[in-house]
Amino acid sequence: MTTTRRHALLLGAALSVSLFATACGTSGDTGSGTAAATRSASADDLQAALNAGGSITVWAWEPTLKKVVADFQTKYPKVKVNLVNAGTGNDQYTALQNAVKAGSGLPDVAQIEYYALPQFALGKAVTDLTAFGADKLDGTFTPGPWNSVHSGSGIYGLPMDSGPMALFYNKDVFDKHKIEVPKTWEEYIAAAKKLHEADPKAYIANDVGDAGFTTSMIWQAGGKPYKVDGTKVGVDFGDAGTQKYTAAWQQLVSGKLVAPIASWSDAWYKGLGDGTIATLVIGAWMPANLETGVKAGAGKWRVAPMPQWESGGKATSENGGSSLAIPEGAANKQLAYAFLKFANVDEGVRTRVDGGAFPATTAQLNSPEFKDKKFPYFGDQQVNQVLAESASQVVSGWSYLPYQVYANSVFNDTVGKAYISGTTLQDGLKAWQDASVKYGQEQGFTMQ
Amino acid sequence: MAVFALVFLAPIAYSVYLSLFRTQLIGGTTFVGADNYVKALGDPQFWSAFGRVALFLVVQVPIMLFLALLVALAIDSGRLYGASFFRISVFLPYAVPAVVAALMWGFMYGTRFGLIGNLNDLLGVSLPDPLSSDLILASIGNIVTWEFVGYNMLILYSALRVVNPSLYEAAEMDGAGQLRIVWAIKLPALRGALLIATIFSIIGSFQLFNEPAILRDLAPNAITTYFTPNYYAYSLSFRGQQFNYSATVAIVMGVITMVIAYVVQLRGMRKGA
C-alpha cells in the first residue's frame, strides 16, 4: 500500500497519457513476438528484435521511467515505446486483470509490486522470463527483490526498485528533548514515551494500521506467517516472530504513543515537517518523497539503521518496491524483455538512480558514487550507505500470499480494530488470518 | 424498444447471469446455480452493511425532509426577506459534486488541521472526533443532509407554487391563521411531492457510496470494506476479484430497495386516496 501512494504522489498528473495510446500502440504491432515464448531467446535474438524495431506499450506509474523510455528510444530509434499510466497499484492491477480476462488491450510490459506479483504468476497472467535468459541474472539483484520475483521455478519479473527498511528520524526533535537515537525496539518504545511526555503534541511515529508496514515488521522479527507452496497455502500469525512484533507494538498503540494520522495524508506531511511525527520506519525509497513532499523538514532529517529486536542484531526487511513484468499474451515479448533489461539491468538503472529511485541491482548499490553521494536534505549525510547496508541484511525466507492484494484490502477491517477499540493487535491479526483463510478456500486454494 | 433493451435490460440480465457462476483463482469458472444467493442471504457482512444503511434511512431521511419542508414553507410564506437568495443558497450544495462535497467535509472534520482542530485550539475544548467509528455514520448523515436539503426543498417548493392562491385568500377570509393554512392547505397539497422525495431518499440511502468511499482514506478503521451494501459490492469486485458474488450482492440489494420503495409508494397512495 505504501508504495502505491508513494508513486501516486511522485507522479502527480505528470504521466497521464490517454488510453488511446494503448490502442495505437498495439494496433501498430506486427505479430513478431508471439512465437518467441516457446524458445529460449539469446542476446542475439534480443538485439535482432531491437534492430527490427516495432512498438511496445508499457503500463507503469514509476516516475523515473519517463526518462528511461526517452533514452531507450534514442538508442534504438526503430523502437517506439508507449508509456501509459493505467493507474497506480490496485487500479492498474484491476485494469490488467480485466485485460487478461478479455484477452485484448494488454500492455507488453506492466509494473507490478512485489507483493502483488505472486497473484499474477499464479494466474498465469505474466510470462516466465527464464525463457529469455532471466535465470542467468543471478547475483545481479539484491537477494530480497530477486527472491520476490521468483515463484516456483519461474521468474516472473525483473526487479525495478527495492525498499530495504531504515529508521528515518527528525534529528532536531531528538536533540531538543535529548533523546538518543534508538538502536533496538525496546529503546524505540522508551524514546516514544519520553518524547510524548516532553511534548504531548509530538509522537514517535504515525500509525493507523498499514498492512505493508505490519507485514514488514513481522518479516524483520523473523515471523513467517505465510507458507506458500504452489496452491497449498498456510496462514498463521501465531508464530514467535509475529508475537515479538505485537508485544512491542501493542505498547505503542495502547499507550496512545503513535499519532492517529494516516500515511500520505495532508496531516502526515505536515506532521513530518513540523516535528510532531518524529520518525518513520520505512523503505529506502523514502528520501525522494521527503525532499519533494516535506520541504519544511530540509536539514532536519537523518537516516539510521532499522531498530533491532536484539541488541547488536543485523536484521532488516523489505517494504514495498516493484518489478516490471511481461503479461502472458503480450504482442511483442522479445522487445518487451529487451526493454525490461535496459530499464532494470543496464543503462536505465543509472538514469533512475539519478532521478531518485532506490535500485535493486548490486552493481549500483555497491558503486562508490552511489554510496558516497551526500544529501543536503539530510544535512549532507551519506544516506545510501545506511540504506545499502540494510539491503544486504534482509531476512530471507519471507513470502507473501498469492492473493496478498485482497488480504491487504481487508487489513483495516480486522487489524484496524486494534487501533480504535479494545481489540489487541494479536486478536486483530487472528481475524485477518481467518479472513485470509476464508478467501483462500473460496478461491480454491488448499489451506493448511 | 431496442434501446431500452440494450441500456436497461442487458446490464441487469448480465448481472443475473454473472451471479449464477463462481470464478476461482484455482479451478476457473463453474456454474453454481443459486449458491451465491444462499451465501449472500447468510452473509453477516452484507447484513451489517444493510443494517447500517437502514439505520441511516430511518434517522437521516426524516431529519432531511423535515428541514427541507421547513425551508420550503418559509420561502413560500412570502414573509422571508431575500427569499430568492435564501433559496439559491440552500440549493447550492446540491450543485456541488458529491465527491467534492465529501472531500470538503473530510477536511473540515479533521481534528488536527481541519475545522474541528481549529475550533479545539481556539476554544481550548476537545470536541469529539467526527471520524471516529462511533460518529462516522452521523458525520456522513450530516454531509448527505447538507447536500440534499436544497434538492428536496425544491421538489416541495414547486409543489407549493401550484396551489391556487385563491385558496389562501378564502382561508384568510374565514379567519384562518398561518399555521392553520399550513396544516389544512399546504401540507395536504404536498403529500404527492413528499412521497416522491421520500422514495428518492430511500433509494439514495441504500445506494450510499461516495461519502464513505472518500472518507475511508481519512478513517480507514472506522469505515470497513463492507460499510454499505454498495461499497461492499465494490470491494468484492475490485479488491477481491469476486465479480460473481459482487453481482449477487448488487442484485439482492436492488431487489430489497425496489420492494421497500414499492411498499412506501403503495402506502403513500392509499393514504392519498
From TrEMBL, chain A:
Belongs to the bacterial solute-binding protein 1 family. InterPro entries: Bact_solute-bd_prot1 (IPR050490), SBP (IPR006059), SBP_1_CS (IPR006061), TAT_signal (IPR006311). Pfam families: SBP_bac_1. CDD domains: PBP2_TMBP_like. Residues 1-23 form the signal peptide. It comes from Nonomuraea montanisoli. Keywords: Signal, Transport. This is Extracellular solute-binding protein. One of its GO terms (biological process) is transmembrane transport.
UniProtKB/TrEMBL annotation, chain B:
One of its GO terms (cellular component) is plasma membrane. This is Sugar ABC transporter permease. The chain crosses the membrane at residues 53-73, 85-108, 135-157, 189-209, 243-264. One of its GO terms (biological process) is transmembrane transport. It comes from Nonomuraea montanisoli. Keywords: Cell membrane, Membrane, Transmembrane, Transmembrane helix, Transport. Residues 50-264 form the ABC transmembrane type-1 domain. It is a multi-pass membrane protein. InterPro entries: MetI-like, MetI-like_sf, UgpAE/MalFG_permease. It comes from the Bacteria. Belongs to the binding-protein-dependent transport system permease family. It is found in: Cell membrane. Signal peptide: none annotated.
